[in-house]
Design brief:
Oligomer: single chain
Strand content: over 45%
Radius of gyration: 23 Å
Number of strands: 37
Largest sheet: 14 strands, antiparallel
């Protein structure tokens, strides 16, 4: 849902997948590219994207879309769950290895079509840690490398480990959090790419090489090969990368980064996003080119995709894969089949403060945007929310013939505004816009919640500071998700609009 680059454009926008899409892993199968990201406490899990050009990406599904594949316990905290998948294509199959820190640890899934269906999990009880990677050598041996960094041989069909995990190269001595390992055979060397420095402002990418997949590895003398630590660059927290060859044979890197806004320390609200950067090889080492918000248009043909429609009318039996919920989404609580053309939600938890709240949302993908929904709360209460986690969310709620705006910030939950609701159905909305700079304390944006009047005008009931829905305030690993929820009883939603707005 961004302006799609056309052939002949001089630049293309970066991030290539905006919004809460962290820990990208990419693979190539013929002329097609597929990419997956972490999804943490949200169900379905692991969004899967397709591209023909590395620039234009379309979500084609979620790899973990069945309860048999993905269990996220109700008492599991936010920012737990699904961490750092690796996607690979080998022997005409797609292989996906991932950690569920909420249940079961490391597990592996396969598919012949990355759009799905994906298999039920093959569990890997002998593989420790997080951020697992898969690589096959010329003898067909499968090597699994994990954060830390250690490695063990596995049978990917059974999950059996073959031998004990052994340590590899773990990056710069003393550096925080060596993680996100990816192992590649490129030319005469095996390359071990890792992230280090933690996934905040100190994040970076380093690499080493060896003659065998198990080492020994020599570090690149120019490490880190990518970092924006200690700079004022508009893209920060750069790391957790994966390498891929473009259609013309050149090399590129997908990685996560954030776009902080406002004063000090700078607040990022969309989560960690997927960026693209060029790579050249010099003396057997990768040299990463400039990572910038606008990339020079690539030399190969682009395959533009249409913008996603602004409106979702809930006319289909199944929700589009962009819609996600908290920990589970049972049909008895969420369905489009009860009232034709409407989404029906039934309350579980009493509010978004609860881990089992019935919520259906989509990632915020633009720094300036607007969302609206038409709700019929006749048999309950519910509304429109912008969520970061259970302790950081804003919402506008309709029910009991009243509309209220709430803010939950840490341990405080407050009613911000209210007005009577004369009719049972009402259009609720939120407009999000960057905050004009004032001083070092200026927040990143403001969120204005209100109702749409019968004549189409938007009446703002409450305006809230966006910094409280940022990772710098809330902590954790996710980004904002905008959506609909039920607080009590049963509520119905006729449509939901999401559209980007021009930046001021």
């Amino acid at each position: 849902m961004s302006d799609q680059p056309q052939q002949g454009d001089t630049t293309v926008p970066n991030p290539v997948i905006p919004g809460f899409h962290p820990d990208p892993s990419v693979c190539r199968a013929g002329d097609d590219y597929y990419l997956v990201c972490s999804s943490f406490e949200y169900f379905p899990g692991i969004p899967v994207f397709h591209s023909r050009d590395l620039v234009n990406w379309t979500q084609i599904g979620n790899a973990l879309d069945r309860p048999s594949q993905l269990r996220l316990p109700r008492d599991m905290p936010s920012s737990a769950g699904i961490y750092a998948p690796t996607l690979r294509h080998h022997d005409d199959r797609f292989w996906l290895i991932v950690t569920n820190v909420g249940d079961g640890g490391n597990m592996l899934f396969t598919a012949t079509d990355p759009a799905g269906p994906w298999s039920d999990p093959v569990r890997l009880p002998g593989v420790p840690g997080i951020d697992p990677d898969l690589a096959w050598d010329e003898d067909g041996i499968c090597w699994c490398t994990v954060a830390g960094v250690s490695q063990v041989r596995i049978d990917p069909h059974t999950g059996e480990t073959l031998g004990e995990p052994h340590p590899l190269w773990s990056g710069t001595a003393g550096a925080l959090a060596p993680e996100a390992p990816h192992l590649y055979r490129i030319g005469p060397y095996w390359y071990l790419l890792i992230a280090e420095g933690g996934t905040e402002r100190g994040h970076g990418v380093s690499i080493a090489r060896g003659r065998t997949p198990s080492g020994p590895f020599e570090p690149c003398p120019a490490n880190p090969i990518l970092t924006h630590r200690g700079t004022s660059h508009p893209i920060q927290n750069t790391g957790h990368a994966d390498l891929v060859q473009a259609p013309d044979g050149s090399w590129w890197m997908v990685l996560l980064g954030v776009r902080p806004r406002g004063g000090t320390p700078g607040w990022h609200v969309l989560g960690r996003e997927t960026f693209l950067a060029p790579v050249e090889w010099v003396d057997g080492w990768p040299v990463v080119g400039e990572l910038c918000p606008e990339l020079p248009a690539p030399a190969w043909p682009l395959h533009p995709i249409p913008d996603a429609p602004v409106r979702n009318d809930f006319d289909h039996a199944e929700l589009h894969p962009r819609w996600i919920s908290l920990r589970e989404r049972p049909e008895r609580l969420c369905t489009t089949k009860e009232r034709s053309g409407w989404l029906t939600l039934r309350a579980a938890g009493a509010s978004l403060d609860e881990n089992d709240a019935m919520f259906v949302g989509r990632r915020q993908q633009h720094l300036s945007c607007r969302a609206r929904t038409l709700i019929d709360p006749a048999d309950g209460r519910g509304g429109l929310a912008v969520r970061l986690d259970e302790e950081h969310h804003y919402e506008i709620e309709a029910g009991a013939r009243e509309v209220r705006v709430y803010a939950r910030i840490g341990s405080v939950r407050a009613e911000v505004a209210s007005r009577p609701l004369p009719d049972t159905a009402v259009v609720l909305g939120v407009e999000i816009a960057p905050t004009p700079p004032r001083d070092a304390r200026t927040g990143p944006d403001t969120l204005s919640f209100g109702v749409e009047e019968p004549d189409g005008t938007f009446t703002v009931l409450g305006t809230l500071d966006g910094r409280h829905l940022s990772t710098e305030v809330a902590g954790g690993f996710t980004g904002r998700v905008i959506g609909m929820y039920a607080a009590t009883g049963t509520v119905h939603f006729d449509w939901f609009d999401y559209e980007p707005l021009p930046l001021p």
